[in-house]
Amino acid sequence: MKKNSRNPAKEDLGEFLDIASEVIVSPHGVMQELTGYSFVIGKSPSEERTNRDPPSEMSKDREIIPIDEYLGLYEPNKMKITIFNKGLRRASEILGCNIEHLGMIVRCHEWAHAIIHVGVTDDERLQASQSDEGWQKILHKHTEIYAGIDDRLHEVFAQLLTYYALQGKEERCTRQVSKNTLDRIIKLFFNLNKHQPTEYRINNLTEISRDRFMKSIDLVKRGNLRLSYGAWETITTW
Ligand SMILES: [Zn+2]
């Protein structure tokens, strides 16, 4: 073999890994990055992918596909995310999409609920890592705030965080092939959104600036203001 001969298999693998790193979203990491809140090490929510039947079904006419309880689920009392293979499979057939692309959207959605629940500030993280009592206090406070958010606002937060996560990833792509894949996933996100119950619909809420949206999350997470969806919409879209 010549000294500087090409090794196509190795080059292909390198390229594949580059593309994969541009395309694959790590929902756990991206939610921390987006919001500026972090999960406490050792107290992060868990994630399971299961072949069990999801707790809910889609509508009989297969027009409405809910995310929570059908494709995925976040249970705040257990700090647990579950992703349902059966739901993903059926929904991907209806939507005519790649099951893993759909899975990525659903994982982002559930990790968005998780960061809204147990994402903490730097000070709180320090406090939580010092003693179990410190962690319990912080968990209790955040669980109360989480329980006070209305359903519509919960879903809008999860949907917009998912959208910003995908959009941010797309903006950072350096390769056309990765960009095309992310574009497809974003299109799928909007297509899925059309098939969802009203509380998940984000319509023109993507026009809110990312900055203003993140500030509204701060307001809610810091517990200074108990916002209904209506009040949130008024202050973010004026
Ligand atoms: Zn949700």
Percent of residues in β-strands: 5-15%
Count of alpha/pi helices: 10
Cα radius of gyration in angstroms: 19 Å
| Strand adjacency order, main sheet | 1-3-2
The kinds of small molecule bound in this structure are: zinc ion
Order of secondary-structure elements? HHEEEHHHHHHHH
Largest sheet: 3 strands, mixed
Overall number of structural domains? 1
Q: Please, what is the oligomeric state?
A: single chain
**Low-confidence parts, pLDDT < 50 over ≥5 residues?**
none
Percentage of residues assigned to helices: 55-70%
Keywords for this structure?
three-stranded mixed β-sheet, binds zinc ion, 60% helix, mainly alpha, 238 residues, single chain
Concise account of the structure shown:
By secondary structure, the protein is mainly alpha-helical.
3D structure, described in words:
By secondary structure, the chain is mainly α. The termini are far apart. The longest helix has 22 residues, at 151-172. The protein has one domain (28-237). Helices cover 60% and strands 6% of the residues. The protein contains ten helices and three strands, in the order ααβββαααααααα. The chain has helices at 8-23, 27-35, 85-95, 99-118, 122-130, 132-147, 151-172, 176-194, 210-221, 229-237, and strands at 46-50, 72-75, 80-84. Bound molecules: zinc ion.
